[in-house]
Amino acid sequence: KAYYEPPYKLAVLGELLDTVNWLHDRGYAVGDLQPRNAIFTLEPRPQVFLLDCDSCVPLGGEGALPQVDPELYKLPEGQRDVRFDQRSDYYKFALSVVRCIQESAQTWRPDREILSRVMRTELVDTIIECARALPPPEARSRLRGAASVWPRLVSGERMYVSTDATLRQAWPSGVSAVDGDPAPAPPAP
Description:
Elements: H1 6-25, E1 28-29, E2 38-41, E3 47-50, E4 57-58, H2 86-102, H3 112-116, H4 121-132, H5 139-149, E5 154-155, E6 158-161, E7 169-170
Antiparallel strand pairs: 1-4, 2-3, 5-6, 6-7
Helix pairs in contact: 1-2, 1-5, 2-4, 4-5
């Protein structure tokens, strides 16, 4: 595809988050978590594969190499000496969501209005909270819910979003969340 609509982006990000959670469950943090370190496919279903895992570290331990963050995914000021852990992964994941949905690879500022076009307020609040600073421990359960829902927003050629207005709303092809609310589509069955 030449352009991936927000439901496709969320589906892939949900799979990425599922992979990150899988590593967390086994005692590891990704560390250098960013879209450039992942490849994805949408066929036959959304799947993500992590690459460049030399910054992966045991939770509470030290990695084989010094901890390195690329400039666009550095931890917040005052927290850059923190060891990579679940919270640093969620911070970087939230930045990835913001940048993908807002279609700006370098933004540091979440836009509540744009994010609300494709997800519920509770999740928007969590993403914004995580993208501003290292997230609180309760963010994990909220983000796990997103990881289980987002991949199901794409079904064949059909795309959906879940917003405050509806649990499952069809998303029109070729429409960006940045361009404004899509033309009203009937709720999905």
